[in-house]
Specification:
heterodimer, A: Enolase-like, domain 1, 12 helices, B: alpha+beta, Ubiquitin-like (UB roll), DNA polymerase, domain 1, five-stranded mixed sheet, 11% strand, Xanthine dehydrogenase family protein subunit M (chain A), oxidoreductase activity (chain A)
């Protein structure tokens, strides 16, 4: 690890001021950042430890929703009684990721900001436009098994690796952000960016901005499902995952919020998929139509071509689950 | 004021170099070499310790971040004469071969018992709420952050199962 200065931020404004500098990174759980620092993918001159700023509470909101502090750990979130009861897709998504040890340390804010596990990004001897703009993308025509099939660019085909944010996207959660210019809220669905020509920009955080919380809307009835397909049964990133909030009323879909992991540089939410399902009775034909819409612009890069049919089948399985429950 | 960390009940000053991981602090500065460095990237679990009652990978956290924290390592769980229940069970069930992963396995399993006691669900749990049924599938899922290069998994699971169920499985 390269030498760096370390300081424990006494206040949010102090942390904001420090991290406004390009050379300073905020550290919370550290499970991703310290790993990247050991690999010299990240070489900050200074770390601002934000762990003691508060923001660790999980509390009810006035309208029946739930606010997750950005510094609450993934474990605290997944095992919280209200998350388990009202937002099971979120508990399931968190529990499907990483290991107990990592979830115990990883924070909600850090989880949103985690970096891709693309092998070219994490190996400083390889080209990567995200890590070293202009150096090229090793994954295109390279080892691309985990890589994206939607929203890619000729600069980058990396995926956002997390599970939690996929569930937050399906639930319509909002990220609360604080910075020198004040506070703002951004829907989780708009928080992460597509790579385009600037793959090093992964989310909408401006320099000095820090996530303070995540707000879940009031719970909806219906079925919540998180289905993750991976290469081993535990401790592996998603090849594809589906977070679904589904409801059938009189035999027809009255709610169909779907987000997908492992497919893109961000949790993938295509509103046209839900729109195609709403008001329709479940059927194989309908599920195929939803998959057609979702995968209309999908493009494989050789090693990850399998993700296109795999996504179709996984979506099918999730949607079919709602009818099985009703039967 | 010097920043301090408690390790197995003894207070120690924290290192000055912020780069020192909690793992290296325990092994190099304190000489507590029971905690092992396997991958140093949070993938193998050999460095698992218990901080404020919670199990974490000590390789992926800086010692400097732990002012005031209370750490338990394998050295704090039992002694050769008075092993903890899990230490005894690992011996009885032959829950290791080379033994390198064992301190991490036992620290991890020690915290696992506490997590089961308060019914934290896992990816293997049928229901998110209510009492967690202690099955081998649950134990395997909850121990997936601890790799064993010798492949002693069957015996590791058997040892944990015996302690978790009080021998009633």
């Amino acid at each position: 690890m390269r030498p760096f200065e370390y300081s424990r931020s006494p206040s949010l404004s102090e942390a904001s001021l420090l991290t406004a500098s390009k050379d300073t990174l905020a550290i919370a759980g550290g499970t991703n950042l310290l790993d990247l620092m050991k690999l010299q993918v990240e070489t900050p001159g200074q770390l601002a430890d934000i762990n003691r700023l508060g923001f660790a509470e999980i509390e009810d909101t006035g309208d029946g929703g739930l606010r997750l502090g950005s510094l609450a750990t993934n474990t605290e979130t997944a095992v919280h009684p209200r998350v388990r009861a009202d937002y099971p897709v979120l508990s399931r998504a968190i529990l499907a990721g990483a290991t107990q040890q990592l979830r115990n340390k990883a924070t909600n804010g850090g989880n949103l900001c985690q970096r891709t596990r693309c092998l070219y990004f994490t190996n400083i001897d390889q080209p990567c436009n995200k890590r070293e703009p202009g150096s090229g993308c090793g994954a295109i025509n390279g080892i691309a098994k985990l890589h994206a099939i939607l929203g890619t660019s000729d600069q980058c085909i990396a995926t956002y690796p997390g599970d939690m944010a996929v569930a937050l996207s399906a639930l319509g959660a909002t990220v609360q952000i604080s910075g020198s210019k004040g506070e703002r809220s951004v829907p989780v669905r708009d928080f992460h960016c597509l790579p385009g020509d600037t793959p090093w920009i992964e989310n909408v955080l401006e320099p000095g901005e820090i996530i303070t919380g995540i707000v879940l809307p009031a719970p909806v009835c219906g079925r919540q499902i998180y289905r993750k397909v991976r290469e081993r049964s535990s401790y592996a990133f998603a090849l594809v995952s589906v977070a679904a909030v589904l409801k059938l009323t009189d035999g027809k879909f009255s709610r169909a919020d779907l987000s997908f992991g492992g497919l893109a540089h961000k949790p993938w939410h295509d509103p046209r998929v839900g729109e195609a399902l709403l008001g329709q009775p479940p059927s194989d034909t309908l599920f195929d139509k939803a998959a057609d819409i979702l995968l209309e612009d999908a493009r494989g890069f050789g090693e990850n071509d399998f993700k296109i049919p795999l996504t179709r089948r996984t979506l099918h399985a999730v949607l079919a689950q709602t009818t099985e429950d009703a039967a | 004021m010097t920043e301090m960390i408690s390790v197995n009940g003894t207070a120690h000053p924290l290192p000055e170099d912020p780069r020192v991981s909690l793992l290296d602090f325990l092994r190099h500065d304190l000489g507590l070499t029971g905690t092992k460095k396997g991958c140093d990237h949070g993938q193998c679990g050999a460095c698992t310790i218990i901080v404020n009652g919670i199990r974490i990978n000590s390789c992926l956290t800086l010692a400097a971040m732990h002012d005031g924290d209370s750490v338990t390592t394998i050295e704090g769980l039992g002694t050769p004469d008075e092993p903890s229940a899990l230490q005894r069970a690992f011996l009885e069930y032959d829950g290791f071969q080379c033994g390198y992963c064992t301190p991490g396995q036992i620290c991890s399993a020690t915290a696992l018992l506490e997590e089961l006691a308060v019914n934290w669900p896992s990816d293997a749990s049928e229901c998110l709420e209510g009492r967690i049924a202690i099955t081998r599938e649950e134990i395997r899922e909850r121990m997936s952050g601890n790799l064993c290069r010798c492949g002693a998994y069957a015996n590791i699971v058997a040892a944990i199962e015996e302690v978790a169920t009080g021998g009633k499985s």
